Amino acid sequence: MDGTRLIPLQPYKFMKNLLILFVVLPLFSWSQTSNPFAAVDAVVDKMPDSLCNSTEKIATYIRQQFPREEDKIRAVFYWTASHIRYDIDNMFAINFNEKSQDKIDKALKTKLGVCIHYAEVFNDIAVKSKLTSRVITGYTKQNGKTDFIPHAWCGVKLNSTWYVFDPTWGAGYVSNEKFVKKINNAYYKVDPEKMIATHMPFDYLWQFKSNPITPDEFLKGKPNPTATNMNLDINAAIETFEQQDELQQLESTAARVEQQGVKNAMIFDFLSNRKVEIENYKRRQLAGSLNEGVAKYNEATKLYNLFIGYRNEQFKPTKPDNEIKQMIDEPKQKLLTAQNTFNRLGNVDAEDKAQVVSIQQSIEELMKLILEQEEFVKTYLSKNKAGRKSMFYKVTMWGIPIN
Fold this sequence. Notes:
By secondary structure, this protein is an alpha+beta fold. Helices cover 50% and strands 11% of the residues.
């Protein structure tokens, strides 16, 4: 007798990533003084080509060659900026669903990329070099005008202080629609107070400033005297953020972006993307809870059926009393877990409501049957051998006696 009832779940369709992260390079060149990092750069230049196809191999080489954080981060910046060329031909050919690792793999394989590829590679090598680093997204300003497409760069914490690195702008420049490779140290280890003149994160937390500026202030290039001073402890604020789970991080990011105002299309797109991610995360949580609850219900059903089969055989072969009791206790505990899972769901939208109600009704029905059998076992165990034998009649899986 097989009474297991499987409750199918409706598949969820997740919306695609809405945000394209790329930006053109500055449309000008520059001159530079002598390189104070020549010694580190020279060691990086000696890295065997066989190591340059993996961020783990690159980071291992950097860790082995440079014990100091200052030298490690220079090596990370120099390798990224010198080994990846800006991909002008494919700057608009962006895969909306491309994952971080896919971006990294693509850039390492082709040695081409746009800003998000530079940033992801830089960040991955830095993290694997045992440095504290993160990718930052936002927009930029050149010659007093805000660019119309987003950009990506990185922040790295060195000796308890955050600095900003832009390996894309540090790799070269665009001239006559062609990429010119030339390391620019102006975008290496920049003080956040200086970088904010050209680089504006969507989330003000990644300005690394105690009093972040607003999008209006960024555009105008001067502070607003009436602005509210936050006096953030930036390290504490970032530590709090890092302790949050994924959903909390998404929600707190969206709240900070909204707090400063949606002042251009790039901010709007970024915020819209975060809100989609929040909804998708909640849908995944709901799907996970539904699957967990249904799984426990099915386990309870299977165990209940095993008990009914054993009861219909008049508890033969003979088991100790505690094992008989356990045979009905186990499905009850599984079912209680299923009930608790569904009780924690909170508000469920109309699309899922009918399904949840149906499963909950099935759980209630099975619980009634289990409680009846639990009472039967309790009575059975209280009787002597002759009294136990007189109690038996066959029942169906739903507890209906069979004549």
